[in-house]
Amino acid sequence: MTGAPRASGNVVLDTAAKAPGPGTVPAGGRGRPPYALVLAGLAVLVVLAATAGVAAGSISVPAGQVWGMLLHQVHPGLAEVTWTPVRETIVLDVRLPRVLLAGVVGAGLAVSGMALQALVRNPLADPMLLGVSSGASVGAVSVLVLNITVFGLVTLPVAAFAGALAALVAVYFLARSGGRMTTIRLVLAGVATAEVLSALASFLIVTSNDPHKTQSALRWMLGGLAGTTWSMLWIPAVVVLAGTAVLLGVSRPLNLLLAGEEAATALGLDVHRFRAALFTLVALMIGTIVAVSGQIGFVGLIMPHVVRLLVGADHRRALPAAALLGAAFLIMTDLAARTLMSPEEVPVGILTALVGGPFFLWLMRRRTS
Fold first, then answer.
1. 3 state DSSP class of 180
2. Best CA proximity match to 109, nearest among 336, 323, 334, 352
3. 3-state DSSP call for residue 181?
């Protein structure tokens, strides 16, 4: 799939360290905590965020009862029943699948953003900024509003994937000029494509005569995890897990790309073929995520930068950390979305935009100063 070179990992990282942009690796990684400690800390953060996400809400459930219910599901003898059936239903059938889906979506967006930033060698790359999320939303909204059922139950994910891939390919070719891709051209092409696709999705919504379809489509535009059920969890979980595993498997070629196309080609990487395959994989992941959560922006922009500060730019180390940090971040953001204005719920995409927008402006100013 990749035509990966046989260069040693040290050669790859040494080359990448000399390249500007998202792949810059400080010499020796001085000042960073041990990798195992960072990974363990992020895993604990995910567990704490998930526990808070399940326990908090309009009906508060003690954390001890939450873990008791989970242990009771594993084996009845592991925990004594001290809770009511109503609380068990709230925890196991309402909150737990939502928290798990938030973790899956956050992890998928984070690793997709990290892969995109390496593929286009641009620290401003993000599934939303490059129009990928908007393309997936157009596909999903078209299915909902026009009642398309060509592929049965998988019609919506297929349409979202097709829209994401089409948007990504369009932005990639629009941003290239004379075989080169600059930061300004990439951002402008991505923003312009995203605006056009968002306008198209909005047009489909406002011209629909069915209020139920309009409401469902609007959820995809704003991004949210309300109404999550167990049946919605499995497909994105499998896709994100498999996609992350593939990205880990090609982490060395991703490291090579940080050194530039010419250097990567000189070391034996078929850059164009590799990029095409990875673009397809990222589009599949984003399309599947958008199909269940709608447009949730900036997670794929912020998390990779935070992770690089913690563990460096080597994708073998950064991708697992990004998945854990993205999962914890979106679980906590979703918790805030449903508790800040309780009993009303704020779309989680709005909160991630409020956090990510200023971060993006700071990053863009830092890159251009």
1. strand
2. 323
3. strand
Low-confidence ranges of the chain (pLDDT < 50): 1-28
* Encoded amino acid at 233, one letter: L
Cα distances (angstroms) measured from residue 79 to each of 74, 91, 95, 252, 335: 9, 15, 20, 45, 26
Q: How many residues does the chain have?
A: 369
**Residues 6 or more apart from 4 whose CB is under 8 A from it?**
250, 252, 253, 268, 269
Q: For residues 54 and 228, what is the distance between their CA atoms, to the nearest angstrom? A: 13
What's the confidence (pLDDT) of residue 5? Answer: 42
Contact predicate 16/259, CB 8 Å: yes
Q: What distance in Å separates the CA atoms of residue 257 and residue 117, rounded to the nearest whole number?
A: 10
Cα separation, 57 vs 59, whole angstroms: 5
**DSSP 8-state code for residue 271:** H
* CA distances for 66 relative to 52, 71, 107, 157, 227, angstroms: 10, 9, 23, 32, 20
Cβ(120)–Cβ(172) under 8 Å? Answer: yes
pLDDT digit string, tens, across residues 89-103? 999 999 999 999 999
Under DSSP, is residue 326 helix (H, G, I), strand (E, B) or coil? helix
DSSP 344: S
Query: How far is Cα 118 from Cα 184, in angstroms, rounded to an integer?
Result: 16
Token duo for residue 343: 């009993």
Asked whether 163 and 322 are in contact (CB, 8 A), the reply is no
